[in-house]
Design a protein that fits this description.
385 residues; alpha/beta; TIM Barrel; globular; binds D-gluconic acid; binds manganese (II) ion
């Protein structure tokens, strides 16, 4: 089926760390061999991806010399060329190294915060060199187990100083880069700071250059927090702050699973895809997920192909939703009751509203055809419509 074959303009991307994930978990060692970045680029081109993203240390070991770094980057650039792949996003690893065991930008130790800035600036230089447009900041260690250790207000000041510092750095170098902040409620810390996309959106407004900073919401993270990912993304989109997105899946109440996109929560994934497509959102469809620990390299490819396929299936379902006469008739009926009309203040309008006699009982007697509407969606998603 042609329509389920990805095209470059679909902008599907993966991180090196996703298809390169070796299946280690807190209770078990790696089950898959290391695949070098160049091989991962090839694998991604085979499954139909448009681009590849990475953390600095997915590509360049943390202890590499300048000479080694240059050789690695040159080889990687050649692979990008050979397989016609872009690097739309780069990010920095501020969580693996023991130096960050108590945070990076929010650490109590100023030298740790300075080192985190240095590491990020070096990664930003590489991002610019490779033509990335978005730089993601995920504060994997920005959190606590012991609330006595940090005043949670100081933490925000430190976070803000660092993001402000990095915005100035980008401006100073005339880089065409925007930042996208990624929230997560917990894992690996007991509590992570700025735990939801909503928290990030509020934080961004307190920065020196809010226009340079948006969000990178992740399906699994909002789901871990028990939130509706579709609603969170809608808020970011409406605020003009959806700079990037991490697509994956997650069972509620579990550890961070990073499952194949739309493998669990079909309905939320459907509304999400419909939202992005209806909005004509121009960003990358980035999958931040990994194959089950049971898989080998074939399984990794099946995983990556599955992420893409599920997006394309849901995109088609969204189109059918928009063309379905019965569904649209119900939505039309709802709109006919003034759903889309703005409610604007004027002194006259306020006075008129205060005077009006509302038939409160009639309003309360009105029923809404949502059982029918939802079942139509279920029929559509389950393939009998
Ligand atoms: C997680 C995170 C990470 C980040 C990535 C980008 O696994 O909890 O989602 O995968 O997205 O590190 O910085
Ligand atoms: Mn992520
Ligand atoms: Mn995650």
């Amino acid at each position: 089926m042609d329509r389920l074959i990805p095209k470059p303009e679909d902008h599907f991307t993966f991180g090196l760390w996703t298809v390169g994930n070796r299946g280690r978990d807190p209770f078990g060692v790696e089950v898959r061999p290391v695949l070098p970045p160049v091989r991962l680029v090839q694998l991604l081109s085979e499954v139909g991806a448009y681009g590849v993203n990475f953390h600095d240390n997915d590509l360049i070991p943390i202890d590499a010399t300048f000479h080694e770094r240059d050789a690695i980057v040159a080889e990687f650039k050649q692979a990008l060329k050979d397989y016609n792949m872009r690097v739309p996003m780069v990010t920095v690893n501020l969580f693996t190294d023991p130096a960050f065991r108590d945070g990076a930008f929010t650490s109590n130790v100023r030298a740790v915060r300075e080192y985190a800035l240095q590491k990020t600036m070096v990664s930003i230089d590489l991002a610019a060199e490779l033509g990335a447009e978005v730089f993601v900041l995920w504060g994997g260690r920005e959190g606590t187990e012991v609330d006595a250790s940090k005043d949670a207000r100081d933490v925000l000041k430190r976070y803000r100083e660092c993001v402000d510092f990095l915005c100035e750095y980008v401006l100073d170098h005339n880089y065409a880069l925007k930042f996208a902040l990624e929230a997560k409620p917990n894992e690996p810390r007991g509590d992570l700071f700025l735990p939801t996309t909503g928290s990030m959106l509020a934080f961004i407004e307190t920065l020196a250059h809010p226009e340079m900073v948006g969000v990178n919401p992740e399906f699994a993270h909002e789901t871990m927090a028990g939130l509706n990912f579709y609603h969170q993304v809608a808020q970011a989109l409406e605020a003009g702050k959806l700079f990037h997105i991490d697509l994956n899946d997650q069972k509620i109440g579990r550890f961070d699973q990073d499952l194949r996109f739309a493998s669990e929560n079909f309905k939320t994934a459907f509304y999400l895809v419909k939202l992005l497509e209806d909005a004509g959102w121009q960003g990358m469809r980035h999958f931040d997920a990994h194959a089950y620990r049971t898989e080998d390299e074939e399984g990794v490819k099946a995983f990556a192909r599955g992420c893409i396929r599920n997006y394309l299936i849901l995109r088609e379902k969204a189109q059918r939703f928009n063309e379905d006469p019965e569904i649209q008739a119900i939505l039309q009926q709802l709109r006919a009751e003034g759903g889309d009309e703005p409610l604007l203040y004027s002194p006259e309008m306020a006075a008129a509203l205060k005077q009006r006699n509302f038939d409160r009982v009639a309003l309360g007697e009105k029923a809404y055809p949502y059982e029918k509407l939802d079942q139509l969606v279920v029929d559509l998603l389950l393939g009998v419509r």
